[in-house]
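User: Hand in any protein.

Assistant:
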Amino acid sequence: MNQLYLGVAKENITPPVGGLLYGYVLDVHSNAIEDDLTATAFWFRQGNKQALMVSLTVCLIHSDLSDEILALLAEEFDIPAGNILLSATHTHSGPNTAGEEGWGPVDHEYCQNIFIPGIRKAVAAAKENIKAVKMASVVGKSLVGVNRRELRPNDEIVLGQNHWGTMDPRMTILSFKDEKGKIVGNMIHYGAHGTAAGCNQEVTRDWSGIMTDGLEERSGGITAFFNGPQGDIGPRISNGKTTGNISYVHELGEIAARDAVAFYEEMGEYKDVELLVSSSVVEIPLKPRMKLEKAEEMLPAYKGKNVNLDGMICGHLEKVIASYSSDYQEKKVYCQNQTLIGLGDYIFAGFPYELFAEIGLRIDDAVKEKNILSLSNTNGTEGYFVTRDAIVRGGYEVGVFLYTHLQPWCDNADYHLLNGTLHHIREALK
């Protein structure tokens, strides 16, 4: 086995006070910096293989913006775009890098002046400072997250806390040590929304920032969070809801930090590991677009609405109607680019979705020889990806799932995403 090399670097990507925050409404401006936002790059090299993982403490990254950054990094640092994972931690208390219909446009000034330059600096520093490393891992159970699809007595699904709902309590930490015994970096994988704060006006990484700071202080190595399947997982804050304020960021962040440090204390032996890198395309069937008559019938109820899900539905209906006056050709499948980066017994699988927890659990369970760490909000954003049974209940996430694309996903899209991902993993392991 060839020696694994790793370089880790972190850059500040905090926006100035006064900018728009990306959360739930269109007109919330920051009035303070609670903690700095960061871009943390992990550059791996083994033999002639290279891979790059970047953790970005923003909510989501618009797919066009992500493609632009991937292409820029590929050209500037001589690495295939398919060997890169750009992963957003999903804090709702940062700038708008998502630009989804109903949530306002991308803050291009921030992206060009702070976000992209910060990513480039972090990647350049990481690549320049690679060292021979060994890796250790540990998995513990944390209750920082909770299923957030709360079912009310009136049979309505709301964003709250569903204590009997599916969740993955596993927190996985990968740690890297150089030849002198110094910790070079740590990666924490867990799945939960960054909404402990909610509609606040402070810029913050939310609860995961306190967690990474805690492990960084304990270990001495740069530490980053990579968010797992969090589409239906909220922060388990003590108000019983899925959002709060800055006090809940500290409350939950300190719990998460204690968990991470406690798990780190049980870290296994540092060993040489194999680097795996693979890119492929996963095909997901699409339904036909909505009938013109139905779209025209629905539009008056949403006309003029521009916020959140109502704004998304309004935009969707308008696009459907416009498509019937164009030469739009319906598609049978959506082709999703997918990157896998494997480190020893673990494989990170990137998804440009807010992935439901059950989907990640099913993928991991189906691969017996490796541990599959699915990543939400990675290499773009294409809305929520829900399970088939969730469609029956409805709710906010299902609404986004149904109206993100001109042609909606098929009802059992979760099966096709799982099946395509498993095929990719099995081919990569041959």
